[in-house]
Description:
This protein is an alpha+beta fold.
Amino acid sequence: MDILLLLSLPIFKSSLFDGGRHNTNSTMPSSDEIVALNNYLQDRNMLASLSWSFQATGVGHEPQWTARCRINGVTRGTGAAGKKTLAKRQAAGAALRSLQEENEGE
């Protein structure tokens, strides 16, 4: 019986075990966008030009976070969410798309 339980355990593997990375909700950006932005900038020797700013508004127990992703001091992406990390992910994704679109035009 223990063997059956162990064999069936992966079936019940959830976000508890994988950090929620397999979320299929397309409106929730993945932390991979932050990694992708960092990799994109590092490949171009621009990682040192990356900076972040954060602002919380609203009531203390339910803040609305705004994250700004700046490259060479220019805001390239903005995100807003109830969680600081999610706002940062949104900003990273927006910045990455902006940089990629700019590169396509060159």
